């Protein structure tokens, strides 16, 4: 039967008819497990930005952004890349990995942002939002939407993470890269099984880039990146012959990107530090620092050469970092159960890579010269407690898997019981955040009066924040006093000062680093050490540092003009040169 034409339109042959394929919209199912959509991720990202800025407002208003000496040092490294006698990549140093400093570079050149620490907050806040969306994306592949939300809430509302997200510390960036690396590896393995060639190719390339970024952020990333590559290599090798051949080039590119990170860092250390393993055995390596700070004849710290104690210290730090009071034992046990369920239910076992930081830190504490102390264990002090934050994704994801299994069991008995259980979990997450900030103890103190004795643990602030406060008590006051004295130095005077230990004084005083002669600029410093009075107008020597040794060896032409002492930090002696002619010689 002939087709009728529509007035004003040409008659087309049946072969020319264009039919649009319509993808059926997946109806919302609160119990379905499938990848997160962009519509789901957007509110997570937006909420993360809001939470991050609220945390920034609180921390910045109280002057807490620079509690960690490491945060001050990270900002100093980023600053000196452009602000130095010899600017360039040589200023990155050979121990701390460079990506965090490169991300701070656009912000830290603004003097006031360097001084108040805001320059380090912008990359960390972005990483915080990136980590939260990654946590939801990963959880969404394993549990229904409500439990993915619960896992993300537990992760995002952690007060320690929220504090770190306002500083120049590297943990938020690494957590973001770690979570998304596992998300991409998960998707790559699924795509290999389904023979989705295009998806596999893209996931391989993205995985290589994320691994490169991890390798350039923290040394933990070297081990996790190698583990992810191994998992993908096995899955690729086991894929069908057609998939194997079609994705071979992408796999090779991923491999090259993955190994490029360590090779590049070896090259950098060899070229600029004179030893390709300077980060492991150089003067600023963990091994050298522990040897320097350990009193002669002292007993080995607990955990050294003992993987059992190393396990206890690391997991205890992880518990206290994640959960209030002594509830961390229960969360750790629940996460272990969730991991078992993930294995038993044959969920993609790629997610078990979240546990990789555990063996890494057991080795590091036992044999890698990495001490870790928490107040809950002997000797009751604070040091590197933030390392436990790397198990936060483990607690969030695997606890959600275990809780989702309980809820499914309850739902077979009563929908009401299941709903109540989920509600109680959300309440527990919120109460945990409040308790970790010491709010319950502070409230109880107000109710019972200032003279009432309240257990310290009830009002203790978050562990990572508390460590920063305790360890900064003498350093910050000393550096502020130094900064006040440095403000009296002429605006064009060259200063000889060791920035390795107290760059915070220079930062607080707002002095450009190019005015300094420091051991970090070894070429100039080595010359100046032979005649300090000739090379600098003002020399600031702190007891025992390289500048003090140079002054002791060559005091000619120097007049002592000021001494600043601080309990626990030693004394800083200010000298004026009587022969300095001006300019860097």
From TrEMBL:
<feature type="transmembrane region" description="Helical">
    <location>
        <begin position="89"/>
        <end position="108"/>
    </location>
</feature>
<feature type="transmembrane region" description="Helical">
    <location>
        <begin position="251"/>
        <end position="268"/>
    </location>
</feature>
<keyword id="KW-0812">Transmembrane</keyword>
<feature type="transmembrane region" description="Helical">
    <location>
        <begin position="418"/>
        <end position="440"/>
    </location>
</feature>
<feature type="transmembrane region" description="Helical">
    <location>
        <begin position="350"/>
        <end position="367"/>
    </location>
</feature>
<keyword id="KW-0472">Membrane</keyword>
<keyword id="KW-0808">Transferase</keyword>
<feature type="transmembrane region" description="Helical">
    <location>
        <begin position="323"/>
        <end position="343"/>
    </location>
</feature>
<feature type="transmembrane region" description="Helical">
    <location>
        <begin position="120"/>
        <end position="139"/>
    </location>
</feature>
<feature type="transmembrane region" description="Helical">
    <location>
        <begin position="387"/>
        <end position="406"/>
    </location>
</feature>
<feature type="transmembrane region" description="Helical">
    <location>
        <begin position="200"/>
        <end position="216"/>
    </location>
</feature>
<keyword id="KW-1003">Cell membrane</keyword>
<feature type="transmembrane region" description="Helical">
    <location>
        <begin position="44"/>
        <end position="68"/>
    </location>
</feature>
<protein>
    <recommendedName>
        <fullName>Glycosyltransferase RgtA/B/C/D-like domain-containing protein</fullName>
    </recommendedName>
</protein>
<dbReference type="InterPro" id="IPR050297">
    <property type="entry name" value="LipidA_mod_glycosyltrf_83"/>
</dbReference>
<dbReference type="GO" id="GO:0009103">
    <property type="term" value="P:lipopolysaccharide biosynthetic process"/>
</dbReference>
<keyword id="KW-0328">Glycosyltransferase</keyword>
<feature type="transmembrane region" description="Helical">
    <location>
        <begin position="172"/>
        <end position="188"/>
    </location>
</feature>
<dbReference type="GO" id="GO:0016763">
    <property type="term" value="F:pentosyltransferase activity"/>
</dbReference>
<dbReference type="GO" id="GO:0005886">
    <property type="term" value="C:plasma membrane"/>
</dbReference>
<keyword id="KW-1133">Transmembrane helix</keyword>
<feature type="transmembrane region" description="Helical">
    <location>
        <begin position="222"/>
        <end position="239"/>
    </location>
</feature>
């Amino acid at each position: 039967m002939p087709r009728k034409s529509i007035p004003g339109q040409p008659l087309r042959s049946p072969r020319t008819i264009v039919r649009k394929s319509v993808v059926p919209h997946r109806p919302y199912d609160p119990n379905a497990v499938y990848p997160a959509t962009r519509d789901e991720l957007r509110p997570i990202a937006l909420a993360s930005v809001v939470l991050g800025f609220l945390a920034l407002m609180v921390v910045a208003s109280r002057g807490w952004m620079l509690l960690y000496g490491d945060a001050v040092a990270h900002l100093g490294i980023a600053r000196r890349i452009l602000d130095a006698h010899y600017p360039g990549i040589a200023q990155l140093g050979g121990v701390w990995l460079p990506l965090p400093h490169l991300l701070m570079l656009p912000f830290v050149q603004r003097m006031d942002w360097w001084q108040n620490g805001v320059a380090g907050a912008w990359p960390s806040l972005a990483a915080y939002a990136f980590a939260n969306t990654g946590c939801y994306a990963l959880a969404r592949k394993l549990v229904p939407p409500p439990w993915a939300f619960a896992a993300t809430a537990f992760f995002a509302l952690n007060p320690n993470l929220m504090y770190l997200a306002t500083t120049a510390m590297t943990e938020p960036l690494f957590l973001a890269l770690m979570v998304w690396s596992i998300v991409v590896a998960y998707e790559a393995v699924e795509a290999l099984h389904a023979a989705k060639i295009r998806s596999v190719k893209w996931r391989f390339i993205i995985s290589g880039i994320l691994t490169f970024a991890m390798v350039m952020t923290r040394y933990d990333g070297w081990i996790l990146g190698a583990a992810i590559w191994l998992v993908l290599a096995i899955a690729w090798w086991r894929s069908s012959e057609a998939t194997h051949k079609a994705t071979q080039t992408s796999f090779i590119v991923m491999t090259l990107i993955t190994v490029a990170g360590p090779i590049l860092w070896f090259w950098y250390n060899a070229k600029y530090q004179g030893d390709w393993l300077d980060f492991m055995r150089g003067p600023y390596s963990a091994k050298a620092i522990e040897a320097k700070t350990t009193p002669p004849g002292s007993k080995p710290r607990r955990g050294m050469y003992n993987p059992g104690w190393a396990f206890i210290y690391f997991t205890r730090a992880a518990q206290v970092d994640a959960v209030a009071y002594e509830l961390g034992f229960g969360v750790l046990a629940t996460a272990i159960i969730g991991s078992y369920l993930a294995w038993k239910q044959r969920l993609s076992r790629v997610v078990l890579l979240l546990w990789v930081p555990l063996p890494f830190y057991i080795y590091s504490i036992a044999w890698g010269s990495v001490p870790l102390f928490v107040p809950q264990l002997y000797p009751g002090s604070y040091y590197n407690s933030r390392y436990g934050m790397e198990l936060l994704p483990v607690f969030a994801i695997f606890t959600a898997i275990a809780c989702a299994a309980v809820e499914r069991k309850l739902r077979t008995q009563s929908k009401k019981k299941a709903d109540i259980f989920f509600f109680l979990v959300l309440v527990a997450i919120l109460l945990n955040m409040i308790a970790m900030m010491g709010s319950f103890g502070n409230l109880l103190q107000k109710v019972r009066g200032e003279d009432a004795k309240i257990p310290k643990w009830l009002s203790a602030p978050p562990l990572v924040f508390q460590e920063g406060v305790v360890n900064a008590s003498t350093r910050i006051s000393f550096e502020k006093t130094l900064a006040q004295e440095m403000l009296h130095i002429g605006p064009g005077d060259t200063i000889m000062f060791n920035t390795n230990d107290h760059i915070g004084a220079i930062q607080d005083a707002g002095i450009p680093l190019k005015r300094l002669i420091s051991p970090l600029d070894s070429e100039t410093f080595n010359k100046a050490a032979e005649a300090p009075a000739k090379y600098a107008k003002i020399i600031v020597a702190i007891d025992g540092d390289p500048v003090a040794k140079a002054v002791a060896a060559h005091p000619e032409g120097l007049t002592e003009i000021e001494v600043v002492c601080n309990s626990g930090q030693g004394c800083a002696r200010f000298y004026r040169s009587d022969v300095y002619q001006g300019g860097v010689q």
